[in-house]
Amino acid sequence: MQASPRAIAEIDCERSRQLRGDGSQPLPDEILAATEPLVLRGLVADWPLVRAARQSAPAADAYLRRFHRDATVLATHALPETGGRIFYNDDLSGFNFTTQMVGFGQVLDALRAHLDAAAPPTFYVGSTTVDTCLPGLRAENDLNFGARDPLASIWIGNRTVIPAHYDVPDNLACVAAGRRRFTLFPPEQLANLYVGPLDFTPAGQSVSLVDLRRPDLVRFPRFAEALRHARAAELGPGDALFIPSMWWHHVEGLEPFNILINYWWRQSPDWMDTPFNTLLLALMTVRDLPPAQRAAWQELFRHYVFESDGAEAAHIPQAARGVLAPISNPGARALRAQLLKRLNR
């Protein structure tokens, strides 16, 4: 029997004075620095956009149009037979959708024209900076992150299915219109998710090849184990979900008109590059070494990176520690220059 994901833990924000979507006080660190996912019911219930969406999809559409100027966005289009799943073609040589830069208003027009269609084509705009395409929206619909300065993005579309993927930043996803179902997997389930190519992806991030709505456990038998560790929640207008860094998440838009506003931030210095670059470089330089050499490098990474506590350089005079000293913004720039010089030999 196939396991069902267990429910994600929840907080009722509409009953909490500390957790309000009006921006009156910053969200607490125990949420924004957590390592487990958390549903925040009603966190943004007071947003005007949410109030409009609770009236109707046309009301939410009209509210958005107040802020639209002439911005163009990267829009995704897929035929009805895809069922809204943004994915590869059958042999992973391409994709089952097309993308085009269009006016944001054209996307709203297309969604409005197909609100009542039984099997509409897919229209989707993902990860577009709010301030770019809808200037002024955040003045009325925003959250207080204190000293954090997150990137705010909007996602809008009809019934879409985004395969399980991870993001490096922490993520607070706020449902402003429609309903979305989130299914999350902890990072340690990587081997059971059957991840596709790292360097040829539908939208920039590697995705699980398993269709969560109809998992083929003959082709992907280990996915049954992933499901035993999965967490899930369905969110409506006003609800939010905190997704910790590196947690895999599968997202379904369940209505003919869905809007999500999410906030991304990293718990690391601005100068720190994405670790994904290190992974790509390790694939080129470490993976195919003889086993004994690979084990030796594993020990070096363990000592200097994964179990680093500063003690590994304690025997070296402070002025002579070089890259083993704490890295600053100038130090990162100098180190990046050294790496580029080595890579371009």
Characterization of this structure:
- There is one protein chain.
- With 345 residues, the chain is α+β, with helices and mostly antiparallel strands.
- 25% of the residues lie in helices and 23% in strands.
- The chain has helices at 29-32, 48-55, 57-65, 104-113, 130-133, 137-140, 223-228, 275-285, 291-306, 329-343; strands spanning 6-7, 10-12, 38-41, 72-78, 98-103, 122-129, 151-157, 161-165, 170-177, 180-185, 231-235, 240-243, 248-253, 258-265.
- The chain has a nine-stranded mixed beta sheet.
- Helix 1 (29-32) links the parallel strand 2 and strand 3.
- The chain is globular, with a radius of gyration of 22 Å.
Strand content: 15-25%
What characterizes the major β-sheet? 9 strands, mixed
Order of helices and strands: EEHEHHEEHEHHEEEEHEEEEHHH
Assign an overall shape.
globular
Mean pLDDT: 94
Total DSSP helices: 10
Helix content: 25-40%
CATH topology of the largest domain: Jelly Rolls
Structural category is: alpha+beta
Question: Would you summarize the structure shown here?
Answer:
The chain has 345 residues and is α+β, with helices and mostly antiparallel strands. Helix content is 25%, strand content 23%.
